[in-house]
Amino acid sequence: MSDGTDSPGRLGLVVPSSNTTAEVEFAQYTPDGVSVHAARMALESVSVDELDAMSADATRAAELLGHADVDVVAYACTTGSLLHGPGFDAELEETLSDAAGVPAVATARSVIRALEILEAERIAVATPYTADLDERERDFLEAAGFEVVRIDGRGIEANTEIGALEPEDARDQATALAESVKSVDAVFVSCTNYRSLDAVDALESDLEVPVITSNSATLWDACRVSSIGSDGAGVLFDHDPSD
């Protein structure tokens, strides 16, 4: 682990090979001097079969990040860390931490921690996913104790197509979703390849409820278990990660 004398921090990301968003957003929302280092797992389509096969690369990716002397490893894939249901996310964190020799967080578990610290119970979820993955995500969140009032997916499977979406797409989808339900405690924009962090502040102003994204929750959680600072967006980052 870095001793902090030569750098404000090194953040390790384990990402799907076709993800073009996570590294960009993590670098954008961390202070100057924090470096972001990624190791990739093979994935082209966000489907159950490919996500399942991708998980075989995760441990090796974390081990390689450990060679870079990172302070924390973040498994930056939402559906990849919830695919096998409750408990898989915690097991994944433990496995990757052992492989890298540093603390590790996984997006699905990070989302739960973020919603809990925001004291959210009723949530609305916007995703780019197909219906089968939306249902797996609903099941995962409901098993964790949240009421998923509505989940809305774009039906996209090609991950490069997800990565081509703009923050305005996320803002429009989340706004329409929130307006379609009576009341929620928070809105969650799912997928680490969905460019949505830049939309968080505007969404919170428009909707007057907390808004988290897969990357905001993962970044916040990575800061929680390491010495790395953050310039993250949204009220989530008003909560000290050490709480």
UniProtKB/TrEMBL annotation:
Coiled coil (residue ranges): none
Keyword Isomerase: yes
Membrane-crossing segments per the record: none
A single GO molecular function term of this UniProt record: maleate isomerase activity
Domain of life according to the entry: Archaea
InterPro entries per record: Iso_Racemase_Enz_sf, MaiA/AMDase
Alphabetical keyword list: Isomerase
Keyword Isomerase: yes
EC identifiers of the protein: 5.2.1.1
Protein name: Arylmalonate decarboxylase or maleate isomerase
The species this protein was found in: Natrarchaeobaculum sulfurireducens
